[in-house]
Design a protein that fits this description.
This protein is of the alpha+beta class. It has two domains: 206 residues, no CATH class; 217 residues, no CATH class. Helix content is 35%, strand content 23%. The chain has seven helices and 21 strands. The strands form four sheets. Strands 1, 4, 5, 6, 7, 8, 9, 10 and 11 form a nine-stranded antiparallel beta sheet that branches. It has a seven-stranded mixed beta sheet with strand order 16-15-12-13-14-20-21, with helices on both faces. A hairpin with a 2-residue loop joins β9 and β10. Bound molecules: zinc ion. Zinc ion binds next to loops. The site of zinc ion has 9 residues, from loops.
């Protein structure tokens, strides 16, 4: 199913899989190397703004974005040909050729498109090397070279602009709206959106998504701009990522899953937390059906030569976009809620199991889940950082089979309706909390058997507590998988 895996966000240009290399530099070539490398990406955040161009601005933006996409595609094609012929690429030569071909329209920003393409090819070579050595996780499959900025069915280019960090600035009116100024094209476009962080701005990415224009502004939080570019500083609400301090030294152990988005056990608290993902799952399947229907109609029309297929393709693309936006909203709400709760419970360190998925019947579904898990863990790390809570990622392999009560791997310690039943002690425990307790043991913590389970559900209006019926506190009601 094309489009099942959401396209990459600009801060993770490699897309489908966790990347091996660090993202390309977000500063102009002049300032390269001066930055403190030790900080890594911990102090980087990307702010998303909705752009509201007027008619003539939109036409101009389209032309620029189409030119940038054309540059990307031509450069990438030239490199693909070289790669097929000799498996090596003349980076310098192609770079020179295409930069000069496109600088009249794109100015120095042509270099940003080229840098991103360089980085994706280098990342591809690095991944291929690891793949050949058998060092890539199985789910990643064989790496493929960078793709084109193109809608394969329509043959239309995807609209995207990259703007160098010193070729734009932001003029806020208040914290909710303002103007984005693009120096090279004489554009001053209204935007809507809250800017949470203050700091030095990086390469701007403008994208046309689901019929809307968005600007993604990477910010190195708290860092001052280069003296040569004093306007390259974004003014937001916070100058530091850490806003709060931990209230205690409680440790939390988290299992991430589908039925329970988060199952949490604690080192110093006699309770556990379940945040149910059934709403997310239901909505995921609803959009999945919607997407499949449009896709089927589109293909039927297309094969019979009806031009109307384009309309259904647009509906299909929109549904893919909507699903991504909805899930993003749910997951971010859940992550924010969980973090605030952990903070209130005095947590200063979190251990999260990196989901290990088994027996997947559908490759795309599998990729989609992996993609979302990686996202959720990344967001969790970012929000925890605001509270000064440390995040550790632990391999989850085997934690669902193991018994957290007596620490054995029971042959018949089966999971029944969301319960793990220990055949030795007869104790029943929620299967996901069992996994969370095993994560704790894996990193050397003994966790009390939770007496109380606090259950919550993620809704579109926030996370709501569920009052369980008496006597079923430890049980997770599993949702039927829709057909
Ligand atoms: Zn047991």
């Amino acid at each position: 199913m094309p489009g099942a895996v959401p396209p990459p966000s600009p801060d993770e240009p490699v897309g489908r899989y966790p990347t091996v290399l660090a993202a390309p530099g977000t500063e102009s070539p002049k300032s390269k190397g001066k930055r403190k490398r030790a900080l890594g990406d911990e102090n980087k955040r990307t702010v998303r703004l909705r752009l509201l161009p007027n008619g003539s601005q939109e036409r101009k933006l389209r032309r620029i974005a189409d030119t940038a996409a054309k540059l990307w595609n031509e450069l990438n094609h030239a490199r693909l040909v070289q790669h097929r012929e000799s498996s090596a690429i003349d980076f310098k030569g192609t770079e020179h050729e295409f930069y000069h071909r496109y600088k009249s329209v794109l100015g120095v920003n042509a270099g940003q498109v080229i840098n991103l393409n360089n980085w994706m090819w280098k990342s591809f070579f690095e991944l291929s090397r690891l793949y050949k050595q058998g060092e890539l996780p199985k789910f990643m499959g064989k790496p493929s070279p960078p793709g084109f900025w193109k809608d394969r069915l329509l043959g239309r280019r995807e609209l995207r602009v990259l703007v160098r960090n010193d070729r734009y600035y932001i003029e806020p009116i208040n914290n909710g709206e303002g103007y984005l100024v693009l120096k090279d094209w004489g554009l001053r476009i209204r935007y809507a959106g809250r800017i949470k962080w203050s700091g030095k701005q990086g390469t701007l990415v403008i994208k046309y998504e689901g019929g809307r224009w968005f600007a993604y502004v990477p910010i190195t939080v708290g860092e001052k701009p280069a003296r040569s570019n004093p306007k390259g500083y974004v003014r937001g609400i916070h100058e530091k990522i850490q806003i709060e301090k931990p209230k205690g030294n409680n440790k939390a152990f988290i299992d991430v899953g589908l039925n329970n988005l988060f199952a949490v056990a604690f080192s110093h608290t006699n309770a556990a937390i379940l945040i149910k993902g059934s709403t997310i799952k239901a909505e995921y399947y609803w959009w999945k059906r919607e997407i499949r229907t449009y896709q089927a109609i589109r293909d039927w029309l297309k094969h019979r030569g009806f031009e109307l297929w384009k309309k259904y393709h647009a509906l299909y693309m929109h549904a893919v976009y909507k699903r991504r936006e909805r899930l993003r909203h749910y997951y971010r709400t859940a992550v924010r809620f969980l973090t605030e709760t952990l903070h209130e419970m005095g947590v200063d360190e979190v251990f999260v199991g990196y989901p290990y998925l088994v027996s997947q019947d559908n490759g795309n579904e599998y990729n989609t889940n992996i993609w979302w898990y990686a996202k959720v863990i990344k967001w969790l790390g970012e929000v925890l950082q605001e509270y000064g809570i440390k995040l550790n990622v632990v391999s989850e392999h085997g934690t669902s089979k193991q018994c957290s009560i007596c620490n054995a791997e029971h042959e018949n310690g089966r999971v029944k309706r969301g319960l793990y039943v220990c055949p030795v002690t007869g104790i029943k425990i929620n299967a996901d909390i069992n996994a969370a307790r095993n994560i704790a043991r894996r990193v050397g913590y003994e966790v009390p058997i939770p007496r109380k389970i606090l259950s919550y559900i993620v809704t579109s209006n926030g996370v709501k507590p569920i009052t369980p019926k008496e006597g079923v506190t430890v049980e997770t009601p599993t949702m039927e998988t829709p057909p």
